[in-house]
Amino acid sequence: VNQYVEGEHEIIAYGDEWKDLPDADQSTYKTMLDVLKDMSQKILTLLPGDNRQLAEIVRGIDDLSFLTYICAANIEIGASKRQEILETPALKDRVLILLDLMQKYK
User: Fold this and answer.
1) What integer is the mean pLDDT of 75-83?
2) Helices H, strands E: what count in the chain?
3) Does residue 105 have a pLDDT over 70?
4) Which of 8, 9, 56, 92 has its CA 20 to 30 A from that of 46?
5) Is the pLDDT of residue 67 over 90?
6) Which of 21, 23, 3 shows the shortest CA–CA distance to 12?
7) Coil/strand/helix, residue 90
8) How far apart, in whole angstroms, are the C-alpha atoms of residue 39 and residue 59?
9) CA–CA gap between residue 48 and residue 50 (Å, rounded)
C-alpha cells in the first residue's frame, strides 16, 4: 500500500502489485507445486462432505504462487500467521512455511 484515504465509512488503499521474489530454479518450483498439490489433496480427503470439485480445482492449478495464496487463505490458522504467510515475498520461503503448517493438519 502506497497511500490510503479514510472516508466516512471506508478506507481506500492505493498500491502496486507485489511480485514474488525468485529464490529457486524452475525445477524446484515444479517439485514444490507437486508436493503442495499432494498435501492439499490429502487434507481434502480428511474433510467431511463431498470435496471432489475442490480436489479437481487444486489439480488444475499450475501456478505455485496462486496455490500458496489459495491454501493460506483457507487453512485454519490465526490471522497473524496467515498474514505472515501472505506477506512473505520469497516464494520458496512462503511454500515451506505453508507446507510445515499443512503437515500438522494432515
Assistant:
1) 91
2) 5, 2
3) yes
4) 92
5) yes
6) 3
7) strand
8) 11
9) 7
Residue 67: closest CA among 28, 98, 104:
98
User: Rounded to whole angstroms, how far apart are CA atoms 55 and 29?
Assistant: 20
Cβ neighbour number for residue 37 with a 10 Å cutoff: 19
| pLDDT tens-digit series, residues 26-51 | 999 999 999 999 999 999 999 899 99
CB 60 within 8 A of CB 51: no
Side chain identity at residue 3, one-letter code: Q
Measure the CA–CA gap between 62 and 12, rounded to whole angstroms. 32
Which residues neighbour 67 within 8 Å (Cβ) at sequence distance 6 or greater?
33, 36, 37, 40, 58, 61
Which bin fits 48, alpha (ψ -120 to 50), beta or left (φ > 0)? beta
